[in-house]
Amino acid sequence: MAHPDPLPYELELTAVDSCKPDDVLIAAANGSARSGVWGELLSTAAGNTGCVGVVVDGMVRDVRQMRDMGFVVYARGRCPLDSKDRQRVIDLDVPVEVGGCGYSRAT
Predict the structure, then answer these.
(1) DSSP code of 99?
(2) Close Cβ partners of 26 (under 8 Å, ≥ 6 residues apart)
(3) The pLDDT of residue 100 is above 90
């Protein structure tokens, strides 16, 4: 993205809110380094649903804070930039591929 997004966090908050206890959320960002797509606030919200961690095929921010809260995060790297107007969630609960491995929602 390179333009203002009128609803920048709508689908990522929907994804976090849909997490159940013991879920691990997967964010398939195709390795993008454009922004940190996950950070402290999403970790706090996800943890409140019982989610135990996230795998991000891209960058994250707020690493120290996530470590301090004990939220498990695996990512390609760090980027201090927020995703607002840089990247957005485009779909939820669809099969994805991360690092050559396919994933879909477990039922």
Answers:
(1) T
(2) 54, 55, 57, 96, 98, 103
(3) no
- Residues 1-28: b if buried by 16+ CB within 10 A, e if exposed: eeeeeeebbeebeebbeebeeebebbbb
Q: Which two tokens stand for residue 61?
A: 């921010």
pTM here? 0.88
What is the dihedral sign for C-alpha 10, 14, 17, 23? negative
Concatenated DSSP letters of 15-65? HHHT--TT-EEEEEEEEEEEEEEE-HHHHHHHHHHT--EEEEEEEE--HHH
- From 35, 25, 21, select the one nearest 82 (Cα to Cα): 35
Q: What is the pLDDT of residues 9-37, one digit of tens each?
A: 999 999 999 999 999 999 999 999 999 99
